[in-house]
Amino acid sequence: MSPIRIDELPCRQTDVAVIGGGIVGLCLAGFLAQRGRAVTLIDAGGSSASTANAGSLHVQMQSRFMRLFPQRVAGFEQQLPLYPRAVEYWREFERDIGADFEMKVSGGLMVAETPEQFEFLVTKSRRERELGLSVELLERGDLERIAPYLGPAAYGAELCANEGKLNPLRCNAQVRAWAVRLGVTIVDRCKVERLCAISPGFTLATTLGSLQARQVAVAAGPGARALMDSVGAFLPVEPEPLHMNITEAAPPLILHLVQHAERSITLKQLSTGQVVIGGGWPAKLAPGSDYPVVDPASLIGNVSLAQYMVPSLAQLQIIRTWAGLNSKVDGRGVLGEMPGLPGLHAAIPGDAGYTLGPLTARLVADLMTGRDPGVDMQPYSPMRLQEEELRALAGQ
């Protein structure tokens, strides 16, 4: 569905304004419309996390996150039980809306090349089991049996059976069409420049005019920080530009979502046969812009590591490479009403946010419509960020 260029907002008032047209914003808008709300979704466009996503469905703790953000691991562990639930919710959501996301849950392998890396997986898997995940450790012989495509450097791995993948481009289009069928008004290429609290509700100043809403949900990823700042709220979301590649189509080869115990990489093969190579290699922000651009060093490093882990990838051509923006907070999602601003909700899912997208959108929709989410939402409350800010100020 192609966005329609317009010169002004199609409406000036709405029950709910959702800011951000990625997977979280689209799902949230659809869930709210199902519950009888008039919903306007506003999306600035550009290279959002969802449109640039590689389609991984993560469950186990990612070694990259643990290595780069050790101070956030304890917080991330509080959210870990949501991940297997989120993958199951993807199945339910796909079925409920009559879609086909080309979703496959065939397991995820985190590969070790050395005894030291394998010992890291032993420790990690022990902690994950304590937190309720189902994982197992595989030695070299096991890998040769279930993942013969891996190269000779593979020493062992951790297997998480409920990890998988989907086709994000197909998924995003189908979720958008579902939201439109439910009556969501989607305004593309429109930037919300600031928010203003009124009584009751909010005014949104946009590049296409002013919009009033009783409730607002901010699902704008890294753009959420400036929006919250404009209304005096604190939401320290940071952009993380990341790099991705995709190959030409090949016969079925890589059966799992593949990661590494120490180095940044994800590998997965779509049902179309193309292999998506990502996993956290850095991109850059264009000078004077918040738009991500490819870093040639990441292109070379990412692809080189991929063919080292799976030697047969060396025969394939890279047909596209791109960059996108991930959103960093503190290892946990920020989900719920902002302190002191009734009606203003954050919908920032946290690390591996695409995996968490539909589930966290439904949780926020429950909060916004007075339903019981069935999950303790306290660990994800925006209130914790305000408390942390006050503690930091007191310590200065």
From TrEMBL:
UniProt superkingdom: Bacteria
Xref: SUPFAM superfamilies: FAD/NAD(P)-binding domain
This protein's record includes keyword Oxidoreductase: yes
Entry GO CC: cytoplasm
Keywords linked to the UniProt accession: Oxidoreductase
Coiled coil regions, renumbered to chain: none
Record-given protein name: Glycine/D-amino acid oxidase, deaminating
Pfam families: DAO (PF01266)
Domain spans labelled FAD dependent oxidoreductase: 15-367
Record lineage: Bacteria, Pseudomonadati, Pseudomonadota, Betaproteobacteria, Burkholderiales
Gene Ontology molecular-function annotations: oxidoreductase activity
